[in-house]
Amino acid sequence: MSAAPLLQVDDVVVDYSHGRGSPAVDHVSLDIPRGRTLGLVGQSGCGKSSLARVVAGLAAPTSGAVRLGGAVLPTPRGRADATRIQMVFQDPSSALNPMHTVRRTLTELLLVHRRAPDRRAATDRAVELLELVGLGAAVLDARPRGLSGGQRQRVGIARALAVEPEVLIADEAVSALDVSVQAAVLNTLRDLGARLDLTMLFISHDLAVTRYVSDELAVMHRGRIVERGRPDDVLRHPRHEYTRSLVAATPRMDGPALSEAEEARPL
Amino acid sequence: MTPVLRITDLVLETGPASAPLRPVSHVGFEVAPGEAFGLVGESGSGKSLTLRAVTGLLPEGVRQAGGTLELERDGALRPYRFAEARGRGIGMVFQEPMTALNPTMRVGDLVTAGPRARHGWSRRTARSRALDLLAEVGMPDPEGQARMWPHQLSGGLRQRVMIAMALATEPSVLLCDEPTTALDVAVQDQILRLLHRIRVERGLSIVFVTHDLGVVRRLCDRVAVMYAGQVVETGRVDEVFTRPTHPYSAGLLRSMPTPDTPRDRPLAAIPGGQPGAADRPEGCRFAPRCAHAVPACARLAHTLAEVPGSPSRSACLRVAGLGGPPLDRRALIA
Fold it and tell me: What's the CATH fold of domain A1-84+167-179+198-255?
């Protein structure tokens, strides 16, 4: 990656153990050029969500820094920086007020952050955002419970985009969705990245999904980035032992069934 | 050969009897001895409810309104009583081992609690059986782990304990409901290989409910694909996954990113979503999302029919040649 990085994660440590155990995030450095997507893959407990929270400004690192356009972002974020990095969560219900309609969720956000001068303009912008994520004005008066899982996640993406962030973090954003719905949301995320020149940190446990959306892939294991490279290089020629085990365990539709494969491998 | 388990025309209802909803309607399949059978579908397809009906563990408010459930005994299929089947014949493995394992019992006691009560085993017999079973499911230190509490074990080891508990009743069929979904991919792989080995060594049948096509591909011989409470396609895994005969199965397969999916074009998503039990369309329930639907689809009476040139059975009227302009199944994955 040659372009100057927009987002830089600079030697970040997150240590919940007060020095008594290994840190959840152990001296991680990453950078993402503007308009590109970095995929971060690893199993649960590897530290990827702790890292995401630090990047989003939801938690302070034990040490290290997050930089945007070269300048360090403080935690908690100041008013000017609060909207520059937004996050889409795995469970969109947790990010949406169950009592509020989609209209209220989006328009209040737009008004509070001065992205629209008045309620009418805010509603127009809300409809634009909904169309951007593949929904329409039809869901304006729905509450989260009245939406399908895929629709809820699209509203979650629209909510994150409402404040016009420079960086979008998607933390297991499609993991709870069914396969056929997941594909459509992945298409939307990719499409948005290109149309809005968004810089994205896409976090998932699913190697195949992450490969599909990412320009570059980083593999996280026990708090460390153990491998980083072009997605297809990482999948075809994994260098780190952990990446190799991850690639080997990823089911392939054209791979061997167990009845044909080596059965004698130790359990 | 007589199947070990046969489900015929299973209908499950919820809501008032005067206007019931049917989360599962007319589902049927049979499982051969030693066979691994996959029941695959997205959430809300009715796959887990179907499995729960087989064990008599339907959630409150859901009732069986039709169909027969039979297990093999003495060479013939017979209807069974749930309590009896759970004690022997059927073993169960669930997605979340922590909610299925009694947290107040040590692992060694847990594994054989059921059969010990049933057969009046002595403490010594139960203990030695427990250690054998813990070794069979690949616990690294059976003696040590038998003395532990469930919460002291990792997710993968807990799932092994649950498998050991299920095996303790000497079942002929192991029913697994998303047993690997909550596990990391490497651990998932270990559990799948363990299930495969147990199946081969014991000649056990497995029914595996999952949303994960890759897992079915890896473990199962035959598969039934469920959509909106019905089976839409059934057949051998190698056939269904490479030459699907229903637009929904084909759509699922195409929408799933694999390590080889081209990155320069959009994924083949299926538009819309699966209808809930309250708003299912007349006729083919997939038709509103289907690129191949014709007006006749809205009048289809659900049935699984032979497909010309394929060993699979399909509910698609065009592919099966039941009506409408015939559709070559090869067009589904083009």
Answer: Rossmann fold (3.40.50)
A202 CA to centre of own chain = 4
Specify the CATH number of the domain B5-225: 3.40.50.300
Determine whether the interchain pair B274/A43 forms a contact, defined as Cβ–Cβ distance below 8 Å: no
Angle at CA A153, nearest 5°, toward A58 and A87?
Answer: 20
Other Cβ atoms less than 10 A from the Cβ of A192: the count is 18
Q: For residue B208, give the amino acid letter.
A: F
A181 interface with B at CB cutoff 8 Å: yes
pLDDT tier at A88, thresholds 50, 70, 90? very high
Extents of the domains making up chain B:
5-225, 245-332
Strands B36-40 and B205-210: parallel
End-to-end CA distance of chain B: 37
Query: Interface pTM (ipTM) of the complex?
Result: 0.81
Closest Cα of chain B to A253: distance in Å? 6
Query: In this predicted structure, what is the pLDDT of residue A1?
Result: 47
What's the half-sphere exposure (Cβ side, CA atoms, 13 Å) at A200?
A: 31
Higher pLDDT among residues A51 and B81, named by residue: A51
Residue B61 region by backbone torsions, left for phi larger than 0, else alpha for psi between -120 and 50, else beta: left
Note whether B218 contacts A265, CB cutoff 8 Å: no
Bridge partners of A67, per DSSP, are A8, A72
Let me know the angle formed at the C-alpha of A88 by A87 and A89, rounded to the nearest 5 degrees. 110
pLDDT tier, A262 (very low <50, low <70, confident <90, very high otherwise): very low
Which residues, including other chains, have CB under 8 Å from residue B141's CB and lie 6 or more apart?
none
pLDDT of residue A255: 63
